[in-house]
Amino acid sequence: MVVSTDDEEIAQVARANGAEVPFMRPIEFAGDSSPDIDAFRHALQWLQDKEGYVPHVVVHLRPTGPVRRVELIDQAIDLMLSHSEADSLRSVSVAQQSPYKMWRIEEGYLKPLLTIEGVTGSCSMPRQLLPRVYWQNGYVDVVRPSTVLEKGSMTGDIVLPFIITDPIFELDSPDDIPEVEDALQRFEMGESIGHTAQGTERYPV
């Protein structure tokens, strides 16, 4: 595992836990609003220039989602490797709220965020009859280096879905730490954290 960071303390912790930190991320690619692609392009270019290789695929494991099952990561990689036409794979969960029931405000009036062609008043339809939508959950993403380096994208044009039914734990603020620590402790003790026996639902591709 390669960790890209601009913080020496994070780099030391990563090395102490067995990760590689072969470079420090340039500060211009490490701001709060820096897009993922800047860090990935820098890392891939560094590996190509300094170590003479580019990996077949890159697995993106965001540090803000530390509660993960290795077998799901392996499944995501296997799925990506079995689809040579795909530019990337993204993990998703069924969205709890449908955007077809959401509104935006324009000039003081509500306007539907989304509409269904040929359907009037889709925002008032039962949720079960609306198109199923998925939330990008950040559990695991897999991308081909060529998608980053040649297409300038983290997704490309052909994106495989990898549907996660496990609960998602995110570290977005200090208030999230107790819940995440509890989930990790239960995870390490082999206790269930709420995932189903199925684990993932494969979408036909």
Q: What share of residues are in beta strands?
A: 15-25%
Mean pLDDT score: 90
Helix content: 25-40%
Report the order of strands and helices: HHEHEEEEHEHE
> What summary fits the major beta sheet?
5 strands, mixed
The whole-angstrom Rg is: 20 Å
Tell me the overall shape.
globular
Number of strands: 7
Number of domains: 3
Can you count the helices? 5
Name the structural class.
alpha+beta
The low-pLDDT segments are 195-205
Note the gap between the termini.
Answer: 29 Å
**Physical arrangement of strands within the biggest beta sheet:** 1-5-2-6-7
Essential attributes:
205 residues, alpha+beta, 3 domains, five-stranded mixed beta sheet, two-stranded antiparallel ribbon, 26% helix, globular, disordered C terminus
Task: Please provide a written account of the structure.
The protein is an alpha+beta fold and 205 residues long. The protein has three domains: 1-54, no CATH class; 57-95 and 133-205, no CATH class; 98-131, no CATH class. 26% of the residues lie in helices and 18% in strands. It has five helices and seven strands; from the N terminus they run ααβαββββαβαβ. The chain has helices at 8-16, 36-51, 70-81, 145-149, 177-188, and strands at residues 58-60, 88-94, 103-106, 109-112, 134-143, 159-164, 200-201. The strands form two sheets. A five-stranded mixed β-sheet has the order 1-5-2-6-7. Strand 3 and strand 4 form a beta hairpin. The radius of gyration is 20 Å and the shape is globular. 14% of the residues are buried. Residues 195-205 have low confidence and may be disordered.
